[in-house]
Amino acid sequence: MKAPYIVDLSEQTGLYFDVADVFNRYQHQVTFQTHFLPRKRLDKSVEDASLDGLVMGVNPIWFGDLKHEKYLWTSPIFEDTDDFVSFHKIPFEYEGETSLHQKTIGGILGYKYFGVDELAAKDLLTRVNTNEEIHLLDMLLKQRLDVAIVSRSTRQYLEAKNHWLGLFHVSEIPHDRYTRHIMALRSRNDEFEIVAKLLENEQVRRELNLLSYKYQSP
User: Fold this and answer.
1) Which residues form the domain of 64?
2) What does the alpha-carbon distance between residue 107 and residue 113 come to, in Å, rounded to a whole number?
3) How far is CA 204 from its chain centroid?
4) Residues 106 and 166 placed together within one structural domain of the fold
5) Which ranges constitute the DSSP H helices of the chain?
6) Residues 106 and 39 grouped into a single domain
7) Among positive and negative, which fits the CA dihedral 67, 39, 15, 177?
């Protein structure tokens, strides 16, 4: 799970649950519900074309579909950034790959980080994995990592929630910037077209923007 997108599964709270609510208020052809699916199960259901629904908050590069030829993709619903984050008393600034040499870098298990994994394979840095980004931030506070790669939206949410404002330094140069979209198999074109049309609605867009700000100060 990844806050603020999914905050609590049992309580069904988080940005993606709110997005489904917005979609349901602006149309009545389909009832949208948000469900969490682990990445391995998602990949399998996409691969064997058994996916029964749309995928929220993903990027074409994560599915090897930069040209949008395999699947259907909406316009971006959110923008995000993966930052190099460090403890404020020991600030780290990314200045190219050599600045990562001999560092202990935190990341999420199963995620691929370009420019980092290659150095780890050559033993030029040490990569440490956790299951959630809150653990990465906690390890930075305990000075068990030199730097961690954390999405900006998640860090801002966790900083506000845990009263951590001012405790982290963010490198001026991030690891990556990307957009989040809604993806669908071509067999789900009817539902996809409903969502695509919703995202052309200025009021829907305005509500989605307000939702993203909401989770920066929970």
Assistant:
1) 15-78+177-214
2) 8
3) 21
4) yes
5) 15-26, 39-47, 117-121, 133-141, 152-162, 189-198, 202-214
6) no
7) negative
15-26 and 189-198 helices cross at what angle (nearest 10)? 90
Same domain, 123 and 167: yes
Dist CA 102 CA 92 (whole Å): 13
3-state secondary structure of 75: coil
Handedness of CA 119, 120, 124, 125 (dihedral sign): positive
Give residue-wise pLDDT tens across range 150-164.
999 999 999 999 999
Amino acid letter, residue 195: V
Amino acid, single-letter form, for residue 119: L
Assign 213 a pLDDT band (cuts: 50, 70, 90).
confident
Rounded Cα distance between 73 and 201, Å, is 17
Q: pTM to 2 decimals?
A: 0.88
